[in-house]
Amino acid sequence: MAKVNRQSNWVRGNCIGRGSYGTVNMAVDKSNGQVFAVKSVDRSSDFDTQLEALENEIRILRSLSSPWMVEYLGDDTTLENNGTTSFRNLHLEYLPGGTVSELARHSGNDVDENTLRSSTWCIVAALKYVHSKGIVHCDIKGKNVLAGPIPGVAKLADFGSAAEFGGASLSPPRGSPLWMAPEVVRREYQGPESDVWSLGCTVIEMVRGQPAWEDRGGHTLCRIGYSDELPEIPTQLSELGRDFVDKCLRRNRAERWSCDQLLNHPFISSSAPLNSITHSSPRCVLDWVNSEFSEKDDEFEEEEEEEESSLAWELQTRCRERIGKLASNSGAIWESDGWVTVRNLICDRAAEEEGGTSSEYPNSMTIEEEMEYSDSIQIEMTNLESFDTDTDSSGGGDSFAVVVERAVDGSDRWRGWNWTMGTRLQDFTVGVAVAVRWWWWWRVDGGEWRTDRCTVAGASGGVIGERGRWCAVQQVCVDAWLAWCQWRKAGGDGLGGGGDCGECGW
Ligand SMILES: Nc1ncnc2c1ncn2[C@@H]1O[C@H](COP(=O)(O)OP(=O)(O)OP(=O)(O)O)[C@@H](O)[C@H]1O
Fold first, then answer.
1. Which helix (H) or strand (E) holds 380?
2. Where is the Protein kinase domain positioned along the sequence (predicted)?
3. Catalytic one among 29, 139, 452, 479?
4. Which CATH class is domain 98-264?
C-alpha cells in the first residue's frame, strides 16, 4: 500500500475521537475495504496551530515505524461538504480498543497488574524506539496510548507534539500540563527524560483512572515545577510497580532511568506481549502482496531478539484486528451458484513418489486448469508449494490441495478450499488469498475480510460464523496456528492434534 498521498478513494465514517488538534473518524478505503482512522483538520480553520500540529505529526510519523506505535498509512487533502470544506487528513491504523485512560477509568480500582505491566512494556518499547530516532514524543499520557484488541497490547499515538530532540528546551513547552516533567514546566529542557517522567505519571493514571496530579490549574503547575513533591503512588500497585514508577518520577532528570533500563526493570522485563513468539510474518496482507518481503528483511535484519518477538506479536495482532473488524460485516454468499474453477492444485508428494494418487480430492493433479488468476493467487500457489515442501522435509507424506474458483458473473468473487493431510482444512472465499509459511488470511468480494463460514476440521471443527465475533477472531488465529502446528508436527498429528499447541493454547 502506498504510504503517502493516498488517493482520496475512501469514505469518512463516524467520529471516534476529538482532541485539541483535530477530529478522528473511522474511514473505509473503497478500493480494498480496509478500515482505518483518519485524523482531520479543516484547512480554513482559524487555528493555524491545529494544521501545524497535524503537518508535524504527518512528518514525524512518516519517518517512524514500530509495532508499538499506531501505524501511519498515508495522508491526503480532501474537499468535502459539497466542495465547501477542505480537510487535511492523516490516515492511521484503526485501533478499536479505546485509550488506556478510558480503560483505566472504567475499571475503577480493579486493576489487573499483568495487563498494566504489559501495556507499560509497550509504551516503553515505543519510547525507546522513538528516542533512538532522535525524537521526543512530548505528550505521553493515557489518552495518547491506544489499546489493542487484546488486554495488555497498547500502541503509542498522537505525535502532534513530537519534536526532534536538540538537547535544549522546546519553546513553547509541549504536552499536557499534568503529565509534564518539572524541567518542562520550568521551560528549561524537554528531552527523552521528560517523556520518562510523563510515563511515570501515565502508569499512575492507568492504575487510578485519573491523572497523577489533581488539576488545580496554576497551583498544580507550581507544585510540579517548583516543589519537592511527587505524585502519590497508588497503594494498590505492587512493590515492583512502585519501584518502577519511582525510577521514572525522579525530579532530577539525570537520575531518571532510560527506556533501556526500564525495559530491564523486573516490573515489565518479562511482560512483552506474547514474547515467546519468535517467528515473523507479513505485516498485513495488502502491504505484503506487493512487498516481496525484501523491506522486512532489511529492516529487521539487525534487530535484537526482543524486537523480533515484538514484530511477530504485532503481526499476529494485526491479523486479529483486521479480520475482527470485518468479521461482523456481511460477506460472500457461499451457497450461490455460478462459480468456475480457475486454478486447481494438489501437492501430493508421497503419492507421487509411491505412484499412488490422492483419493481425498477427485480432481487430483499437480497443477490443472489455469483459466484466469490474479497475481495474488499466484503468490498463494507458490507459497503453498514451499509449504508442502516444508512438511515433507519432516517425512510427512501429506497432501495439500487448493482449489480456487472465480464467480462466472465477473463480479470478482472468489472462493476456494484447501485440504491437507486428507482432511478438509479450510473453506475460504478469496479475493486475495495468500499463504506464506504458516500464515493465512483471506478476503472476500474484493474488500471484506471474513472468517465466518471457514470450517476447520479436526478438534476445533465447526462453522466459525456461529461462534460470535470475538471467537471468530480467535479462530482465525487458530487457523494460522493450526497450519503452523501442522508444519511443526509434520507427518504427525498436526491437524487432528489440536489442543496441545503450546504457542496459541489451542
Ligand atoms: N488510530 C486510532 N484508532 C482509534 N481511535 C483513535 C485513533 N487515533 C485517535 N483516536 C481517538 O481519537 C482521540 C483523539 O486523537 P488524538 O489524541 O490523536 O487527537 P489530538 O487532537 O492530537 O488530541 P490531544 O488533545 O490529546 O492533543 C484519541 O484520544 C482516541 O480516542
1. helix 375-393
2. 10-268
3. 139
4. mainly alpha
What is the C-alpha to C-alpha distance for residues 230 and 26, in angstroms, rounded to an integer?
A: 39
Residue 226 has a CB neighbour count (10 Å cut-off) of: 11
SS (H, E, C) 231-243: CCCCCCCCHHHHH
Cell of 219: 497551583
Higher pLDDT, 391 or 166: 166
Residue 343's SS3 state is strand
Look-up of cell digits 516533567: 181
Mean pLDDT score, 292-320: 43
Distance 159 CA to ligand 1 centre (A): 10
Q: Which three cell numbers stand for residue 216?
A: 488545580
Chain position carrying cell 475512501: 10
Q: Which segment of 28-37, 123-132, 242-251, 446-455 scores lowest on mean pLDDT?
A: 446-455
Q: How far is the CA of 103 from the centre of ligand 1 (A)?
A: 14
Q: Which of 8-17, 42-51, 146-155, 460-469 has the lowest mean pLDDT?
A: 460-469
Residue owning the nearest CA to atom 1 of ligand 1? 94
Instruction: State pLDDT tens for residues 267-279.
Output: 999 888 864 332 2
Query: Do 339 and 415 meet the contact criterion of CB atoms below 8 Å apart?
Result: yes
**Residue 485 and residue 497 in contact, taking contact as beta carbons nearer than 8 Å:** yes
Interacting residues of 370 by C-beta distance below 8 A, sequence separation 6+: 342, 343
Q: Answer with the residue of higher pLDDT: 21 or 221.
A: 221
Closest CA to 436 of 492, 498, 480: 480
Which CATH number is associated with domain 10-93?
A: 3.30.200.20
Please report, for residues 164, 189, 422, the alpha-carbon distance to residue 61 in angstroms, rounded to integers and kept in the order given.
Answer: 12, 23, 48
Task: Tell me how far the alpha carbon of residue 19 lies from the centroid of ligand 1, in angstroms.
Answer: 6
Please state, rounded to an integer, the average pLDDT across all residues of the chain: 64
What are the residue boundaries of the structural domains of the chain, listed by start?
10-93, 98-264
State the closest ligand 1 atom to the C-alpha of 144, by its place in the atom list counted from 1.
17
Can you give the pLDDT at residue 184?
92
Given a cut of 90, is residue 324 above it in pLDDT? no
